[in-house]
Amino acid sequence: MADFSAPRGMRDFYPEDMVLRNRIFDSWRAAAVASGFEAYDSCVVESLELLKRKAGEEIVNQIYAFQDKGGREIALRAEMTPTLARMVAARQGSLRFPIKWFTIAQCFRYERMTRGRKREHYQLNLDIIGEEAVSGEAEVIYTAIAALRKMGVPDSAYRVHLSNRALLSELLLGLKIEEKFHQGAFIALDKKGKIPREEIEQILREEGLTDEACAAAFNLMEIRSLEEAEAIVGPDSPSIRRIRDLFELLDCYGIREQVVFDISVVRGLSYYTGIVFEAFDTQGAFRAIFGGGRYDNLLTTIGGKPTPAVGLGFGDVVIGEIIQALNLPDTRPQPENLFIGYMQEAQRKAATRLAASERAKGKHVTLQLHPQKPKAFFAAAGETATSAVFLGPDDVASGKARVKNMTTREETEIPLV
Fold it and tell me: How far apart are CA 75 and CA 294, in angstroms?
């Protein structure tokens, strides 16, 4: 018998599932708009060549790539940053920089599924393009934290781990590891804690590092504070200064306590150039909540002009699991939800007119579509309604309806229309 369930790694969202998804999406959107980000969107399919330019040929093994009927190589987008770069490069001469854009995008990646990772997910993307100062990093981190707060996630439940790939380059140069080996080292060291050390060392050797250099690179990952790193590269290090400037701005935002220096944050994608960050739950039970960083060279790889940029991606899967695991209450203001029902067919028109009138006032109204007995109606209303109106012959005759508050059980009268 044919199996018509959703493809492996993909999700269906029933109405009860949409409650959590809407909670996440609403918080994302509200935080982004409150910080002055403008919404954008794009097609879900993308040129495979664009993705190759962004991250190399190996990405073909990780995404859904195929030929269309015209023989063109395309793919379902694995992330939004390459698409954003393409869109900005196309209008680079007419845009007023810096721009602050956001989107909630559905992304696809064909890879091994683990806890917190599906083959399809939605993610908030926040990007600021055209700003060199670390105020860009501060703004996107603040906005992501604002979204967490709107979801009801307490500040104590997570920390944002932050580093600087430019600092790591300085440290690698101090170990006499040539710059041409740095990109390979970044990609390998990003796998620390995800695969065995022996496998990472093998990757480093394949990238051209000697055994001595491999050991030294691993030792860098044991640096525990910004002060330790500064002792090696010196206080005049530009990358150290950028981190300190960023921490000062985060303090101005009131979120300094939520952000910690962590040299082990590397971010494996090849386009990152400077400060990088990832947020994790404080218990270490889940994958990264969100992550991002500075990518100043991406536009030039697709023919655009050199333009500084910083951004982040914030997926729905991990944060949804955290909200459920911690049983966090929904702190968003809940709209009034009025249920309207009726006892007999003779009251249907009156109930319909009342529903239309109340909806016109901006209320959320659920109109029952067929006659019901009072017990069945109030049982259904009690699940989600804040108030309910049940019309019988006497109500229509009097021209008044009784509105029952489903919490206090108090009743008030309103006129029928």
Answer: 25
